[in-house]
Design goal:
There is one protein chain. Helix content is 77%, strand content 0%. The protein has 333 residues and is mainly alpha-helical. The protein folds into 2 domains: 71 residues; 239 residues, MetI-like fold (Orthogonal Bundle), CATH 1.10.3720.10. The protein is globular and about 85 Å long.
């Protein structure tokens, strides 16, 4: 209980620090947010009135105090480019990005872990060489180029998959905002198939880099484990190789990969804006990138705080998974 309360206190301190840092940083960005929001041709009086309505004419410490008061009441302030509460926009767009990132991360883990294991158990063989070549290729392709090529191949040339948006038909009944989950919960298999087909291309593009990293990490960790004395002893007493590789060596090797996965999740949220832009995906990463270009102060800080919270939550989950994987950590607690 004490450890949990300490976590909550640390989270509050981190969020407060990030909010202050981002609040100050966005205000030194070049450009006028009022001009970006109102467009050209507005008079000085109109601009001053809008600035006063948004509270941008007050000293910085008063602006920050007002913002903290809004956060305490569950509000993120009003977006300059959409003239709506940032919290409302985030709640609409966050599920789209989460669904994309979760699917891409699952794809990277489900494909990357077996590839890494096979690469390690067939070291310097043909399978290992092919796996390493694929990993190198995955981290070498720029995301925007891979997205455009996949659009041309699967969408334009072969017409196999839709290339823009989350869904073509009516979306499923809103429960979580994740179309795949909502369609399964409501039994709407037509919407599930539609949403799944829209997810395939952006998921592959977003997973290319993480897939290569997961494969490389598993390979390196497995090679390290397979060289340890307990593996040689297990082989000597006649234990099946499958059991050695997947029950013992993989469990010990997966700790480093778990750290990588915990690091990749928030990183993929931040890098998803390229994929969302190319595939017209209505996610929070795309909204955050548009907010930066428009100097939308409240939107930038709001999106950053949401991502920060996810980083903290993912780190907490990763720590708990460490305890499940390694009994030694459990005993130390």
């Amino acid at each position: 209980m004490v450890r949990f309360l300490r976590r909550v206190l640390n989270t509050a301190i981190v969020v407060l620090f990030v909010s202050l840092l981002m609040f100050l940083l966005v205000r030194v960005l070049p450009g006028d947010p009022v001009a970006a929001a109102m467009g050209e041709g507005v008079t000085k009086e109109q601009a001053d009135k809008f600035r006063a309505e948004m509270g941008l004419d007050k000293p910085l410490y008063l602006q920050y105090a007002t913002y903290l008061d809004q956060l305490a009441h569950g509000e993120f302030g009003r977006s300059l480019i959409e003239s709506r509460d940032v919290g409302e926009i985030v709640s609409e767009r966050l599920p789209a990005t989460l669904e994309l990132v979760i699917c891409a991360l699952l794809f990277a883990v489900v494909v990357g872990v077996p590839l890494g294991i096979l690469s390690a158990t067939h070291r310097n063989g043909l399978l290992d060489q092919v796996s390493r070549l694929c990993s190198l290729t995955g981290v070498s392709f720029p995301g925007f180029w891979a997205a455009l090529m996949l659009q041309l191949l699967l969408g334009a040339a072969l017409a196999l998959l839709p290339i823009t948006g989350r869904i073509t038909g009516p979306p499923p009944e809103h429960i979580t905002g994740l179309y795949l989950v909502d369609s399964l919960l409501t039994g709407n298999m037509s919407a599930f198939g539609d949403a799944f087909r829209h997810l395939v291309a952006p998921t592959i593009v977003l997973a290319l880099g993480p897939l290569a990293q997961v494969t490389g990490m598993i390979r390196s960790s497995m090679l390290d484990e397979l060289s340890k004395p307990y593996v040689s002893f297990s082989h000597a007493v006649g234990m099946p190789g499958f059991l050695i590789n997947y029950k013992y060596a993989l469990r010990n090797a997966f700790s480093a990969t778990l750290t990588l996965i915990g690091f990749l999740f928030p990183l993929m949220i931040g890098s998803a804006f390229v994929v969302e832009k190319v595939f017209a995906w209505p996610g929070i990463a795309r909204f955050g990138a548009d907010a930066i270009l428009a100097n939308d102060y409240n939107a930038i800080v709001g999106v950053t705080l949401v991502v920060c919270l996810f980083v903290v939550v993912v780190n907490f989950v990763t720590d708990e998974l460490y305890v499940m994987l390694d009994p030694r950590i459990r005993l130390q607690r």
